[in-house]
Amino acid sequence: MFNKVVIAGVGLIGGSLGLAMIRRNLAREVVGVDPAAENLALAERLGAVHRAGVLAEVLPGAELFILAAPIGVTLGVLEMAIPYLTSGTIVTDVGSVKGRLLERARKMVPEGVYLVGGHPMAGLEVAGVAGAREDLFEGASYVLTPDPHTHPLVLDKLKKLIQGIGANPVEMAAGDHDRAVAAISHLPHLLAATLVNTVTAEPNPDQLLKLAGGGFRDTTRIAASNASMWRDILLTNRDRVLETLRQFRGQLEEMEQAIENFDSQQLVYGLERARNVRAALPENRTYLKKR
Q1: CATH 3.40.50.720 at 2-172, yes or no
Q2: pLDDT tens readout for residues 2-61
Q3: Domain Prephenate/arogenate dehydrogenase spans what residues (predicted)?
Q4: Which of 18, 110, 227, 245 has CA 20 to 30 A from 262's CA?
Q5: Do 2-172 and 177-289 agree at the fold level?
Q6: What are the extents of the domains in the chain?
């Protein structure tokens, strides 16, 4: 158990972390910091934090500092926090891009403060603490990106916290993480948004959208996420995303050629291969099973 945890950015992820830690007795005190006063007040009412404050007042003496702000402002928040960090404090984040962010963050963190990148592979298409759930992380993978200098006891403490909120800790190098999420998270968001934009560019898009059934809705669900947040994610992971886009374009061209050449064998092969992989994909998210 942590004595005092400070969460900077009490939105969906930060709020859900706070809820899980409080309700499962993983922290004696969870303090929230957020620029949106209404959101912070709601976090208190929902029990996602015990109390609210500002960095200068609440950070001294904190055992764990969680950077849960949007990725575009994470380093700015860390910079503001530096003067108030106590030796021995563990600093972690929840951002979906690790390499470039951690490289800069390590240069900022003072000696005696432990920095370990983190990324819970969980989320919803809502923003703010109003959508926070205690069980958001149940069954989800939670990536940690330690470096060779990470203290084993620090890593062990974070793993126990992750297990305590119901998630499965996974250790990865920062570069491997960024390559992975470019394929399984960032590319799908681009594809969902592009599919919606393709349909809306058609003649009579309103009529088409009225006909849209479950397949279209399921495929484009993540396109409803916050655009500014995704802009920052995609640009921060720019190189990996571009690599993955090129790979996708190659796969799409193969399917296009099969249709153009009336190559039913190649078309069936591509569809069957995808069907088999998708059918074997485990559903490990507990709260999704409850829907």
Answers
A1: yes
A2: 999 999 999 999 999 999 999 999 999 999 999 999 999 999 999 999 999 999 999 999
A3: 3-289
A4: 245
A5: no
A6: 2-172, 177-289
Task: Give residue-wise pLDDT tens across range 212-233.
Answer: 888 999 999 999 988 999 999 9
Q: Does domain 177-289 have CATH number 1.10.3660.10?
A: yes
| Average of per-residue pLDDT values in the chain | 93
